[in-house]
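Is this the right way to post C-alpha cells for a design question? Let me know if I should format differently. Anyway, here goes:
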C-alpha cells in the first residue's frame, strides 16, 4: 500500500513560507505592542494628573495632591518626597516607556493650579514619543505620536557594538598594555582592555584614581577641596557647591556610516537613589550647559549616560559602575589616544579647548572631565567620544568653616526612628538648608569675619535644622509625626574656638519638654540637655513626636583650650535669660503712669500724645483721673513699628483675618507670622507658622521689662510670589496702631465700606478703635502707596500684666467685663453706694450666693488649648468663660458621660444613640446608632474602627452642625480645623445627615485635633 508523503521541496517551501510570515508578523506585532504601551502610558498619565487635580480642587484631606509620573503614583502633599504614603494611589506605567521632561506635578488646593508647568515626554522603545503639555491654567494637552527623524532611526544596519564585542574579546590583550602605564589615564585604558580581553581590572581601575588627583596623598579632604573622586568614579562633595555641567561633544552612529544614536545624560546627587536629567533631557550635540545649585555637603554625584537608537540600540552606563565605559580625568591627566572610528570627529577635537601644549588636560582645580564609551571596549570602535562632559564645582560663599575661626559640628550618639520618623545624621543650616554631614564643621563667622547670621531655617528636613544668630544658634528637631511615630535623637554639638555661655529653651510649640530637670527617658516628655563641664559642647537629647523641640545655644569666641569655668554649670538652665539686659527697665517708664512729658518716659515723643484728651496720653497707660482705668494693662510704647515693654507683661496675639490674592480675583496668598521679643535676635513662629485665616490665637508669658517686640510677616504663593518684611525695617509694610491713632490714610480707608469686616470694625471716624491694653498690627505685603489696603494680615495684640504675678490673667480678666447681661445683677448688687437697694438687696445677694455657689471649670488658655487647667470660679462668671470655650467640670472629669475627658472633649452633651442618619445608613457611612461610644458602619450597622476617641467626643450630628455653621462647640480653639469643616460642600453635609458621615470627616478630626 502506497502512502503519499511530503517531498523535501514541499517541506522547505512550507518552512520558508512560515519563516517569511513570522519575519513579517513578529516585527509588526512588536511594533504594535510598543505603540500600544505608549498609548496606555499616555492614558494613565492623563488619568493620574486629572485625579490629582480633582482631589486638590475638592480639598481632600485639606491638602494639595500631585502625580509622580515615573512611579505612576498619585500622592498627597507638597512633593513626592514628603508625601503621606498611606494615601498613595498607584497607576503603574508600562516598563517599556521612558519618561523625560517634567516627572512630578503638584496641584494647589481648591484652584488646582499645577506646579511646575511644561512638557511630560513619554518615549517608546522604537523612539516614538508623545508629549503631555501641562499649562499654567491647569489644562492637560496630549500630542499625537511624534515619529523620530529618519536620520536617527534607520531600520537597516548592523549592531556594530555587539560585533565589536566579539572582536574585542579576541584582541583584549591590548588592554594589558594600559595596565603598565604610569599615568592614571593609561590605567583607564588597561581597564578598557580588561573588560573584553580579560586584563587586570584592579590595575586599570587603580590608574583612574592615581591620575585623578592627589586627595589620598594630601590626607583627609576638607570643605576647601569641594569634592573628591573615589576609585570607582563616584564624586563625593565635601562642601556646599554648585555644579555646572557642559557638553563638549558627542558622536556615535549605528554602524559604520549609519544613522546617529541619540545620547542623553542624567545626574544623581544622592548616590543613585534619584536622577535628574541634564540639559533638560536634550540630546547631547556639544555646547549644552546647565548648573545645579546648592548641592549640599557629603553628597555622592554619579553621572549616567544613555545612548538609544529606536529599539535596536539602548545602552546605559554609570560613572561608578566599574565597567570602564566612563573615564574620569582631572587637571594634568593625559587623555587617552584612541583611533577614530569611521569618519567621526576625534576625541582630541572635543578636548581641544581643555588640552595644554604638552597634550595634558588643562582645567580648573575643581573641574573634572568625563569620557563615555557606549559601544564595546577594546575594539576598533572604542573611541570614548560618545559623550564628553566637563563638570565644574563652585563653592557657596560662607559655607566652609576655616580651621582658625570659631566653628561647631554635630555628632550623633543615638538615632532611632519609629513609625514615620525619618531623622538622619544630617544638619541643615539656614534658609537654604545647606546640608552638613556628621562631624563636619560649620562656620560661626562669615566671609567678612563677622558673626554669621541666617535669615531663618527650614523645619521640614530629615535631620536637625540650625539657624545661626548673633551670638547663639537655634537647634531644632522637627516634629510632625502622629500615630505613635517618634524620632529619638541624641546629638552632641561641639564647639571649637568658642565656648557655650547659656542654654535657653524655645517657647510655644517649639519648646523642648523639661530639658533641665535631669530626667531622661524615651517618652515624649523625656527630653534632656546636658552641658559639658568645659562648656565646649552640649548633648541635645530630644524625643520628637507631634511638635518641634528647639534649643538656643549661646556662645562666645574663646581662643584658649578647654574651659574649666565653674560658672558654666549654671548655663544649663533657662534662667540664664537673666544675663540679658531685658531685666533692666531702661525705658524709664514707670509701671503705673506717665509723667506727662509726652514721651512715655522713653525719650521718644508720641505723635498723638494726649491729643484726644481722653486722659490716657494715648499710650494705653491710664492716668489716675481716667474713667476707663484697666488695672491689667501693662506699660508699653510704640516706636517705628516696634513695641517696647515698660514692665513685665503677657502678650496675646489674635489673628483678626487676612485678605491677599495673587492678582485681582486670583488665588489666595498664604501669610505667616513670626515674633521676636529681643529686638530681632531670636524669632519664634506665631500660630504654629500656619496660614492666617482669622480666629487663631497665640500667647507669650512673662516677657521681661524693656523687651522689644517685633513682628515679621511672610507671604507666599508657590513660586509665583514671596515677600517677607518685619516691623521697623524701614519699608512701612507693618504698621502698629494704638488707641485712637489715625488709620493708614490710603485710598480704601476713605471708603470704609470697601474694607473687609475684620479691619472695618476696628476703624471709626478714621481712628483705630482698640482698648487701652491693645495694639493693632496691619500688614501690607504687595504694592505700597495710595492703593495699599493694609489688610493682608490684621493682628490684635493684648499686653497685660503677667498672670504669674496674681494681679490679672486666668478667670479674673473675665470678671472685669460687665458687658454681659449675666453680670448685670451682680454688678448692681455690689454697688453699696447707690442707696436705692436697701436691706432687701442684701437679702437678694445672700440668697444669690447661696443658690449660685462656685463651680469648677476646665479652662483653655487662648491660643494654647492643650495647656488646660481646672479652675474654680463664681457661677456668675461662667457666661464669659463659656463664650471663650471653657467647659464646666474638672478637666479630668466627664460631664456628658461619653467616655471622653472634659479636657479632650470638643463637643459637650453628646447623645448615644444619635438622631443621624435621619433616613438610613449607606455603605461606608458612620454614626453612633447604639448606646455606645463606638461608631457603627453600613446598613447592617457593624462595629467600625472609629470611636468617640477619634472624633474627640463628637457625634456625626455634632460634626455636621459645625460644618453647617449651626454650632461651634470648642472648634473655635482650632481655627484651621474649623475652617476645614466649614469648607465642606452643602451636598456633602446634607447627605451625611441623611445617610451617615463619611470616613473623610472622621479622619479629618482624628488627624487635626491632636
Amino acid at each position: 500500500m502506497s502512502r503519499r508523503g511530503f517531498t523535501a521541496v514541499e517541506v522547505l517551501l512550507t518552512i520558508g513560507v512560515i519563516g517569511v510570515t513570522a519575519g513579517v508578523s513578529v516585527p509588526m506585532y512588536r511594533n504594535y505592542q510598543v505603540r500600544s504601551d505608549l498609548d496606555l502610558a499616555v492614558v494613565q498619565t492623563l488619568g493620574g494628573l486629572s485625579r490629582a487635580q480633582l482631589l486638590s480642587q475638592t480639598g481632600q484631606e485639606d491638602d494639595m495632591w500631585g502625580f509622580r509620573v515615573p512611579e505612576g503614583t498619585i500622592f498627597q502633599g507638597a512633593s513626592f518626597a514628603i508625601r503621606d504614603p498611606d494615601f498613595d494611589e498607584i497607576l503603574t506605567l508600562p516598563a517599556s516607556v521612558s519618561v523625560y521632561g517634567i516627572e512630578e506635578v503638584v496641584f494647589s488646593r481648591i484652584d488646582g493650579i499645577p506646579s511646575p508647568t511644561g512638557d511630560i515626554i513619554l518615549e517608546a522603545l522604537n523612539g516614538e514619543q508623545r508629549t503631555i503639555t501641562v499649562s499654567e491654567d491647569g489644562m492637560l494637552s496630549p500630542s499625537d505620536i511624534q515619529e523620530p527623524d529618519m536620520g536617527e532611526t534607520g531600520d537597516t544596519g548592523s549592531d556594530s557594538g555587539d560585533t565589536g564585542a566579539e572582536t574585542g574579546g579576541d584582541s583584549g590583550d591590548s588592554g594589558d598594555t594600559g595596565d603598565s602605564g604610569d599615568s592614571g589615564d593609561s590605567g583607564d585604558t588597561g581597564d578598557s582592555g580588561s573588560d573584553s580581553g580579560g586584563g587586570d581590572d584592579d590595575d586599570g581601575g587603580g590608574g583612574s584614581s592615581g591620575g585623578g588627583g592627589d586627595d589620598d596623598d594630601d590626607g583627609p579632604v576638607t570643605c576647601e577641596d569641594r569634592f573628591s573622586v573615589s576609585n570607582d568614579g563616584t564624586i563625593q562633595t565635601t562642601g556646599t557647591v554648585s555644579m555646572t555641567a557642559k557638553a563638549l561633544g558627542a558622536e556615535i552612529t549605528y554602524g559604520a556610516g549609519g544613522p546617529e544614536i541619540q545620547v542623553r545624560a542624567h545626574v544623581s546627587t544622592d548616590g543613585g537613589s534619584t536622577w535628574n536629567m541634564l540639559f533638560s533631557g536634550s540630546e547631547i550635540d556639544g555646547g549644552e550647559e546647565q548648573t545645579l545649585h546648592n548641592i549640599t555637603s557629603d553628597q555622592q554625584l554619579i553621572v549616567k549616560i544613555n545612548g538609544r537608537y529606536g529599539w535596536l540600540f539602548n545602552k546605559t552606563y554609570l560613572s561608578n559602575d566599574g565597567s570602564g565605559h566612563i573615564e574620569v580625568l582631572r587637571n594634568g591627566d593625559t587623555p587617552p589616544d584612541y583611533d577614530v572610528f569611521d569618519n567621526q570627529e576625534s576625541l582630541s577635537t572635543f578636548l581641544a579647548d581643555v588640552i595644554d601644549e604638552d597634550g595634558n588636560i588643562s582645567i580648573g582645580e575643581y573641574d573634572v572631565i568625563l569620557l563615555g564609551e557606549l559601544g564595546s571596549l577594546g575594539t576598533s570602535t572604542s573611541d570614548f567620544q560618545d559623550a564628553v562632559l566637563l563638570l565644574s564645582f563652585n563653592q557657596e560663599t560662607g559655607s566652609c568653616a576655616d580651621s582658625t575661626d570659631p566653628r561647631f559640628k554635630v555628632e550623633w550618639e543615638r538615632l532611632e526612628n519609629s513609625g514615620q520618623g525619618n531623622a538622619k545624621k544630617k544638619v541643615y543650616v539656614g534658609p537654604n538648608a545647606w546640608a552638613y554631614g556628621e562631624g563636619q564643621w560649620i562656620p560661626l563667622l562669615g566671609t567678612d569675619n563677622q558673626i554669621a547670621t541666617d535669615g531663618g531655617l527650614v523645619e521640614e528636613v530629615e535631620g536637625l535644622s540650625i539657624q545661626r544668630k548673633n551670638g547663639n544658634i537655634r537647634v531644632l528637631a522637627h516634629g510632625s509625626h502622629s500615630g505613635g511615630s517618634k524620632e529619638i535623637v541624641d546629638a552632641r554639638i561641639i564647639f571649637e574656638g568658642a565656648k557655650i555661655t547659656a542654654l535657653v529653651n524655645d517657647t510655644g510649640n517649639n519648646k523642648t519638654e523639661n530639658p533641665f530637670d535631669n530626667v531622661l527617658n524615651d517618652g515624649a516628655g523625656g527630653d534632656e540637655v546636658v552641658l559639658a563641664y568645659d562648656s565646649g559642647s552640649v548633648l541635645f537629647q530630644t524625643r520628637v513626636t507631634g511638635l518641634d523641640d528647639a534649643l538656643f545655644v549661646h556662645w562666645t569666641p574663646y581662643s584658649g583650650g578647654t574651659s574649666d569655668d565653674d560658672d558654666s554649670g549654671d548655663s544649663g538652665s533657662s534662667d540664664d535669660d537673666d544675663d540679658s539686659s531685658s531685666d533692666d527697665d531702661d525705658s524709664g517708664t514707670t509701671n503705673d503712669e506717665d509723667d506727662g512729658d509726652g514721651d512715655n518716659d522713653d525719650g521718644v515723643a508720641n505723635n498723638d500724645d494726649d491729643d484726644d484728651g481722653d486722659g490716657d496720653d494715648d499710650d494705653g497707660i491710664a492716668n489716675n483721673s481716667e474713667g476707663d482705668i484697666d488695672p491689667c494693662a501693662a506699660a508699653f510704647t510704640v516706636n517705628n513699628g516696634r513695641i517696647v515693654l515698660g514692665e513685665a507683661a503677657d502678650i496675646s496675639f489674635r489673628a483678626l483675618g487676612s485678605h491677599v490674592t495673587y492678582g485681582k480675583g486670583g488665588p489666595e496668598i498664604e501669610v505667616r507670622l513670626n515674633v521676636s521679643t529681643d529686638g530681632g535676635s531670636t524669632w519664634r513662629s506665631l500660630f504654629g507658622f500656619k496660614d492666617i485665616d482669622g480666629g487663631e490665637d497665640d500667647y507669650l508669658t512673662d516677657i521681661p521689662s524693656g523687651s522689644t517686640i517685633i513682628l515679621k510677616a511672610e507671604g507666599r504663593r508657590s513660586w509665583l510670589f514671596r515677600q517677607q518684611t518685619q516691623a521697623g525695617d524701614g519699608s512701612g509694610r507693618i504698621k502698629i496702631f494704638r488707641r485712637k491713632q489715625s488709620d493708614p490714610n490710603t485710598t480704601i480707608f476713605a471708603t470704609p465700606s470697601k474694607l473687609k469686616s475684620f479691619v472695618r470694625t476696628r476703624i471709626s471716624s478714621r481712628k483705630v478703635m482698640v482698648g487701652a491694653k491693645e495694639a493693632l498690627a496691619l500688614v501690607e505685603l504687595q504694592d505700597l502707596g495710595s492703593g495699599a489696603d493694609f489688610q493682608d494680615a490684621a493682628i490684635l495684640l493684648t499686653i497685660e500684666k503677667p498672670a504669674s504675678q496674681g494681679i490679672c490673667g486666668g478667670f479674673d480678666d473675665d470678671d472685669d467685663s460687665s458687658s454681659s447681661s449675666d453680670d448685670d445683677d451682680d454688678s448692681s448688687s455690689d454697688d453699696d453706694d447707690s442707696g436705692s437697694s436697701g436691706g432687701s438687696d442684701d437679702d437678694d445677694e445672700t440668697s444669690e450666693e447661696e443658690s449660685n455657689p462656685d463651680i469648677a471649670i476646665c479652662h483653655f488658655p487662648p491660643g494654647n488649648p492643650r495647656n488646660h487647667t481646672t479652675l474654680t470660679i463664681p457661677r456668675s462668671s461662667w457666661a464669659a468663660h463659656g463664650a471663650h470655650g471653657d467647659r464646666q467640670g474638672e478637666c479630668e472629669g466627664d460631664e456628658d458621660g461619653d467616655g471622653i475627658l472634659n479636657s479632650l472633649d470638643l463637643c459637650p452633651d453628646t447623645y448615644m444613640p444619635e438622631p443621624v442618619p435621619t433616613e438610613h445608613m449607606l455603605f461606608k457611612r458612620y454614626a453612633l446608632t447604639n448606646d455606645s461610644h463606638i461608631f457603627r458602619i453600613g446598613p447592617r450597622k457593624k462595629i467600625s474602627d472609629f470611636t468617640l476617641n477619634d472624633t474627640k467626643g463628637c457625634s456625626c450630628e455634632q460634626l455636621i452642625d459645625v460644618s453647617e455653621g449651626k454650632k461651634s462647640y470648642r472648634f473655635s480653639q482650632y481655627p484651621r480645623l474649623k475652617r476645614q469643616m466649614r469648607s465642606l460642600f452643602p451636598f456633602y453635609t446634607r447627605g451625611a445627615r441623611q445617610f451617615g458621615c463619611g470616613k473623610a470627616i472622621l479622619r479629618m478630626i482624628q488627624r487635626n485635633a491632636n
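Format looks fine. Someone answered above. Worth noting: Residues 33-140 form one domain. The longest strand covers residues 407-418.
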